Amino acid sequence: MKESHLRSISKAVSWRICGTLFTMIIAFLITHKLNFSIYIGLLEFITKVGLFYLHERLWEAISLFKSEKVIM
Questions:
Q1: Quick check: 56 and 12 in contact, CB under 8 A?
Q2: Which is more confidently placed, 38 or 62?
């Protein structure tokens, strides 16, 4: 089954929400500055969602490790 673009985007966003929260917590623990921690989290979220989406689409485009089996 082929991954849709919407599914790839949804997976990227849900994964990044978790990762971004942890990044913001770590940034706050290091800097003790809430605004700066939020800025770091937002920047990280935007860039990594885009990178994850591109990564998913590249893997969809190559045939490495793909199964040709059709399951009914």
A1: yes
A2: 38
Cα–Cα distance list, 47 to 5, 13, 27, 65 (Å): 17, 11, 17, 27
Phi and psi at residue 67, to the nearest 5°: -95, 135
Indicate the SS3 state at residue 50. Answer: helix
Are 21 and 41 contacting, i.e. CB atoms less than 8 angstroms apart? Answer: yes
pTM above 0.85, yes or no: no
Contact predicate 16/48, CB 8 Å: yes
Tell me the residue length of the chain.
72
Q: Report how far residue 46's alpha carbon sits from residue 26's, in angstroms, rounded to the nearest whole number.
A: 18
